[in-house]
Amino acid sequence: MVIEAGGDEDLAIAGLLHDAVEDAGGLPRLEDVRVRFGDRVADIVRACSDSTDEEWKRSVTYRTRKQAYLDHLADAPDDVVLVSTADKLHNARSIVTDLKRSEVEVLAKFNGKPEEVLWYYEQCLGIAVDRKVSDTLTLPLTAAVDVIRSYVDPTP
Question: Which among 82, 79, 83, 84 is positioned nearest to 69, based on CA atoms?
Answer without folding.
Answer: 84
